[in-house]
Hints:
The protein is of the alpha+beta class. The chain folds into 2 domains: about 1-65 and about 125-194, NAD(P)-binding Rossmann-like Domain (Rossmann fold, 3-Layer(aba) Sandwich); about 70-120, no CATH class. Helix content is about 45%, strand content about 15%. A 5-stranded mixed β-sheet has the order 1-2-3-4-5, with helices on both faces. A hairpin with a 2-residue loop joins β2 and β3.
Amino acid sequence: xxxxxxxxxxxxxxxxxxxxxxxxxxxxxxxxxxxxxxxxxxxxxxxxxxxxxxxxxxxxxxxxxxxxxxxxxxxxxxxxxxxxxxxxxxxxxxxxxxxxxxxxxxxxxxxxxxxxxxxxxxxxxxxxxxxxxxxxxxxxxxxxxxxxxxxxxxxxxxxxxxxxxxxxxxxxxxxxxxxxxxxxxxxxxxxxxx
Length: 194
């Protein structure tokens, strides 16, 4: 397994990341199989992404967040504040006033102030109750156990399990390839097959 990682070749990855940008990065490693667990409101889900024709990849339905416009709008808002208002705004959110003021005056890629502005511009996390996260983890563990310890899935095996606490139901279905996938999984697989 260490040799696979050293060569950038992964057989199995488990993904429980919150941001679509992170999901894009996980998918860019192109493992043979990704087990994903996630929540959205009162819904827990577990996905299995196999590197095979016809199956969605982790990136398919998780387009990268485009934070640029939000970051530039926040920079303009911060520049329009008085020194006192800027300090109160930043301190109230636990950010370094000096680092952000320096970044606004003299932008520098990779500075602490740039990171703070990016963090400030990020949308607030979505609600997920502890019970929902636990359910997603259990579904994910069940998928791992079934696939790796018991028996690999047949081609007819569904690749998505959704448990809705609001509706009180569980559904198994297939997640189709998104033709607009940023990773181009359908074309990549077709090119590899030829």
